[in-house]
Amino acid sequence: MNNQSHSTLPADPPDLHTHCTQCGASVQFPHGSVASSGPVTSELVEQIALFNERSAAREEVVRDLSESLSAAQDLLTRRTAMPLIRRLQRLHDDLSYDARTAADPAVGARLSTYAVEVEDLLTAESVVIGAADEGEPFDPRRHTTVGRMPTADPALDRTVAQVLGHLYSDSTTGDVTGLARVKVYQYTPTPTQEDQQ
After folding, report:
1. What pairing do the DSSP bridges indicate for beta strands 180-187 and 160-163?
2. Pairing with 179, which of 12, 109, 129, 159 sits 20 to 30 Å away (CA)?
């Protein structure tokens, strides 16, 4: 019978928990327990917390910069489109006025249709179309004078005599993009007989 050599295995496996703790390491075992030394773990937790805090701050800065860039791009696009918007506003005013004053009803109806199409274009560009009213006081923030009409009534002085255009504003910012074109009453005293002599 041949003698066979057998390797001798240790009676118990090495205590990894004790070994890792002694060397100051932190190990995650399959069952979820952590072997670590107290001071090393506390320092690591502090470093992770600091890293997370800095990461959150960086993300906030990136988000703010992204929002600022988007706003700047929108503003640049708006400024680039503004000359065209103002031309559309003037075209809308002219078509609307000509439609109201046309002698031929059929022509007036056709012009009104064109005015509605231009209005749709302005609405798509976030332009709100408002109205000025005859008789309201002249307000340079809402009106622009294109003519004056004499009146003998001092109560009508500097009030809107005739509305020739609309008031336009930006729906996103509230800024006025086009003043209402109006004619304004100007008080003109009636000459007396003594003045005429």
Report:
1. antiparallel
2. 109
pLDDT at position 31 over 50: no
pLDDT of residue 39: 57
| Euclidean distance between CA atoms 145 and 182, whole angstroms | 5
Identify the DSSP state of 152.
Answer: S
- CATH code for the part of the protein at 127-191: 2.30.22.10
Q: Hey, is 167 helix, strand or coil?
A: strand
SS3 14: coil
Q: Which residue is listed with tokens 């500097």?
A: 158
pTM score? 0.59
Long-range CB pairs of 113-118 (<8 Å, 24+ gap) are: 118/88, 118/91, 118/92
What is residue 17's predicted lDDT score, i.e. its pLDDT? 46
Q: Locate the domains of the chain by residue range.
A: 35-125, 127-191
**Residue found by looking up tokens 């809107």 in the block:** 160
Angstrom distance (rounded) from CA 113 to CA 98:
12
User: What token pair was written down for 102?
Assistant: 């046309």
